Amino acid sequence: MLSAQLLFGLVRSDGSRVTESAWRRFLARQITPLFPDGLTVLRGEGQWRRPDGRLLREPTRIVLVIAPETPATLSALETVRTAYRDAFAQEGVGLVLTRACARFR
After folding, report:
1. What order do you get walking across the sheet with 40-49 strand by strand?
2. How does pLDDT run across 15-50, given as a tens digit for each residue?
3. Which residue in 37, 40, 57, 78 could disulfide with 64, CB within 3.0 to 4.6 Å?
4. Whether the model pTM is above 0.85
């Protein structure tokens, strides 16, 4: 299996915030259909260094997905990353992949 953590910043490039309702709509319309077997959403506080050297701190959402390690899974993860960047004017969406042994039943 593959353990994927998607890291979504909630501050747009213009400094405005992604609202909770906008985040929930994105989760429902873009992420959940691609990973219908389940996922976990965590709240976080992230920070990263911008290309201009400034440190940016922002609220984040971390989506944890455990799925088969297949080309379809990797494609779905990239689809989500691209959709979020485009929808919310993000410079990037983090993705951490780890091979995992997982069992749910």
Report:
1. 40-49, 55-67, 2-9, 94-99
2. 899 999 999 999 999 999 999 999 999 999 999 888
3. 40
4. yes
Residue 68: pLDDT band with limits 50, 70, 90 = very high
Q: Is 6 exposed, middle or buried (0-12, 13-18, 19+ CB in 10 A)?
A: buried
Tokens, residue 41: 């959403």
The domains located in the chain, with CATH, are: 2-58+65-99 (3.30.70)
Is residue 62 within 8 A of residue 44, CB to CB? The reply is yes
**Residue 86 burial (10 A CB sphere; 0-12, 13-18, 19+):** exposed
pLDDT score, position 48? 86
